[in-house]
Specification:
mainly alpha; 3 strands; 267 residues
Length: 267
C-alpha cells in the first residue's frame, strides 16, 4: 500500500511536469517510470524468464564459460565506450538462451540482456553481433520499453505491475520480448548502436551488416525483434551515414575470432 501511495504521488508530480512540457515534447515520449522502476521491472522480468526453463532454456554460465566470456567482452567494450548514459545505473547482466531456431536478442528495462544461440549462429562476424547488442543496449539505455509501456498501459496497470502482480508480470514479460518499437525508437537505437561502437576499433556500422545479410537473402525470415520499419534499405544507409557523420574510424570485424564463439556454443 505504501509503495502504491508513493507511486501515485510520483505520478501526480509527473502529470504536472508533463503539462508544463507539452509544447516541447510529445506526450508519447514521456515516461511514468523512474530509473528505480526500470530496475525493479527488469529484475521482475528476468525472474519470470529464468523461472521458465522450458520456454527460455538459459545456458549455464559455468558450463559455458568460454561463450559467456566472449559475450561479456563485447558487452564491456560497449559499456566502456563512455557513451552509455545509464552504464552505472542498470545491471547489464547477460544470459544466453539455447534456441537455434530463434534469431533474437532483447534487453529488458534495467539492462538484463538476452541473446539467442540462433542469432549468434546466423551472424558472420563479431562486429555484427556487437552492432546488434549495442542496438539492444540502446533500447534499454534510452528507456524505450517503459516509454512505450507508459503510452500503451493505464496507470492502474503500471501500479499493479510495480506492486508485484505475478500474472501481470508474466504478460508484460511476453510483451517486452516481442515488443515492436516505433519508427522513432528503432531509429534512436540504430543511432545509439553506432554511437556506442564509434570509440571502439569495431566497424561502427556493424548493425548495417545484419540488414545487408537479410537483404541478400531476399528479406525472408526477418527476425521479429527488429521492426521492418524503417525498411532495411533505409536502415543500412542510416547506419553508414551515422558512422560517417560521427567520424568513426574503426575497421575491425574480427570474423576469424568469431569462430571461437561459434565453436563454444552447444549444437
Amino acid at each position: 500500500m505504501k509503495r502504491i501511495i508513493i507511486f501515485s504521488l510520483l505520478f501526480s508530480s509527473t502529470l504536472f511536469f508533463m503539462s508544463c512540457e507539452m509544447t516541447k515534447k510529445s506526450i508519447s515520449e514521456f515516461n511514468l517510470f523512474t530509473i528505480e522502476n526500470d530496475k525493479q521491472l527488469g529484475k521482475e522480468v528476468a525472474m519470470e524468464i529464468e523461472s521458465n526453463p522450458q520456454e527460455y532454456p538459459i545456458l549455464d554460465s559455468a558450463k559455458n564459460a568460454t561463450a559467456y566470456k566472449y559475450l561479456y567482452d563485447i558487452r564491456d567494450r560497449i559499456l566502456n565506450s563512455g557513451k552509455v548514459e545509464h552504464k552505472n545505473d542498470f545491471a547489464w547482466r547477460l544470459r544466453i538462451i539455447h534456441d537455434d531456431q530463434t534469431k533474437n536478442a532483447f534487453c529488458t528495462p534495467g539492462g538484463y540482456i538476452y541473446v539467442y544461440t540462433g542469432l549468434m549462429k546466423y551472424l558472420d562476424s563479431e562486429e555484427q553481433l556487437a552492432g546488434v547488442l549495442a542496438h539492444e543496449i540502446g533500447h534499454a539505455d534510452l528507456r524505450h520499453s517503459t516509454r512505450q509501456m507508459t503510452k500503451l498501459y493505464g496507470v492502474e496497470t503500471l501500479l499493479n505491475m510495480l506492486a508485484g502482480d505475478r500474472a501481470l508480470i508474466k504478460d508484460i514479460t511476453k510483451s517486452i520480448i516481442g515488443l515492436k518499437f516505433s519508427r522513432t525508437h528503432e531509429t534512436e537505437a540504430d543511432k545509439a548502436s553506432v554511437t556506442y561502437l564509434c570509440p571502439t576499433d569495431y566497424v561502427a556500422a556493424g548493425g548495417a551488416k545484419f540488414f545487408e545479410k537479410i537483404e541478400a537473402e531476399g528479406g525472408a525470415g526477418v527476425p521479429e525483434w527488429l521492426s521492418t520499419h524503417p525498411s532495411p534499405d533505409n536502415r543500412i544507409e542510416y547506419f553508414y551515414n551515422q558512422s560517417t557523420e560521427q567520424g568513426c574510424t574503426g575497421k575491425e570485424t574480427y570474423k576469424a575470432r568469431y569462430q571461437l564463439l561459434l565453436r563454444a556454443l552447444p549444437n
